[in-house]
Specification:
By secondary structure, the protein is α/β, with parallel strands linked by helices. The chain folds into three domains: 2-101 and 282-295, Rossmann fold; 104-187 and 305-320, Rossmann fold (3-Layer(aba) Sandwich), CATH 3.40.50.10800; 194-275, NadA-like (Rossmann fold), CATH 3.40.50. 44% of the residues lie in helices and 15% in strands. The protein has helices spanning 2-15, 19-33, 45-50, 57-64, 78-87, 110-119, 133-136, 148-154, 166-173, 189-192, 196-205, 219-222, 231-240, 254-261, 286-295, 306-320, and strands spanning 35-40, 53-55, 71-75, 92-94, 123-128, 141-143, 159-163, 180-183, 210-213, 227-228, 245-249, 268-270. The strands form three sheets. A four-stranded parallel sheet has the order 2-1-3-4, sandwiched between helices.
Length: 322
């Protein structure tokens, strides 16, 4: 039995390509499949390194519409794959880890949306892009953390029902006092768990560090920040800064892009003691990307009611471009 176990382990090790061989094979398959690989900043650093483009959800959604390729491989979670498919219904969209989901994407009920619409005659339902395709059909427009403020300001309605993230919604509400922002009680479990005590401990340990926070964090945590911005905005802030120490309150996957943009600059980035890692994004490993390209697995089906689900995404792109 022991000999058989050792033989199986040896066979598995031999079947797993080295990082260099895996990267070579991925590049070869991208050419053969006419594929472009998109990766979110929250995926593992090794996966980001294999992608053609790395970005946040707004960048990837906008970019997807401009690509000329047969196949788009989306390294992220399910709502991202759905969004890319909705914006590119004629292209094959693949996901290396199709089971990777976002809990927040489900944190809103249709009955509550209907209740709000019945209560207010002048209301826009604004859905964070971190929602399922079905939830998008309930909305008037989608937003991301990088364009939510601009889009909400562009809307003619005074009443805004912001779904599903209460933390991002309250952050936007504080900046648009002319609007009545109604919140839904959803959240990102990874950002919401970042505690005030952890942030204050970090500030005490690194008093010279600038504190940068994602607006999916709780309001008491955001109050401790020197800068609040989307994932991309946080990365750009660190890269452009003359400073050398930063407390970053978002998913730790951003460290790879910060390092790529600041070679040799010795930027020191500190994350909370409970390291913010998205377990679903972590599923999108390089081996899964290779397997996806090899057998064209993980294809994303066009969601039901594609016009109703895609319209809020299209309106987001329109309003954000103004």
């Amino acid at each position: 039995m022991v000999a058989n176990d050792r033989a199986a382990t040896l066979a598995a090790q031999q079947a797993t390509p080295s990082p260099d061989e895996l990267a070579r094979r991925v590049e070869q398959l991208k050419r053969e499949r006419g594929a472009v690989v998109l990766a979110h900043y929250y995926t593992p650093a090794q996966t980001q390194a294999l992608a053609d483009y790395v970005g946040d959800s707004f960048y990837l959604a906008r970019l997807a519409k401009t690509l000329e390729c047969e196949t788009i491989v989306l390294c992220g979670v399910s709502f991202m794959g759905e969004s890319v498919k909705l914006l590119n219904p004629g292209r094959r969209v693949l996901m290396p880890a199709p089971e990777a989901d976002c809990p927040m994407a489900h944190m809103v009920e249709k009955a509550e949306v209907d209740r709000i619409r019945a209560t207010y005659d002048d209301v826009a339902v604004v859905a964070y892009v971190n929602t399922t395709a079905e939830v998008k059909t309930w909305a008037d427009v989608c937003v991301t953390s990088s364009n939510a403020l601009k889009v909400v300001r562009e809307l003619p309605q005074r009443n805004i029902f912001f779904i599903p993230d209460a933390n991002l919604g309250s952050f936007i509400a504080r900046q648009v006092p002319e609007k009545n922002v109604i919140l839904n009680m959803g959240c990102c479990p990874i950002h919401d768990v970042i505690s005030l005590d952890e942030v204050r401990d970090l500030k005490a340990a690194h008093p010279a560090a600038e504190v940068l926070a994602h607006p999916e964090c709780r309001p008491d945590v955001l109050a401790e920040a020197d800068y609040i911005g989307s994932t991309k905005e946080i990365i750009n802030r660190v890269a452009a800064s003359d400073g050398s120490e930063f407390i970053v309150l978002t998913v730790a996957g951003v460290a790879a892009e910060i390092e790529r943009l600041t070679p040799g600059q010795n930027k020191r980035v500190y994350f909370p003691a409970t390291t913010p890692i998205c377990p679903n994004m972590a599923k999108v490993k390089p081996e899964r990307l290779l397997a996806c390209l090899e057998d064209l697995s993980g294809e994303v089906a066009l969601p039901e009611c594609p016009e109703a689900a895609g319209a809020p995404l299209e309106r987001m792109l329109e309003l954000a471009a103004r």
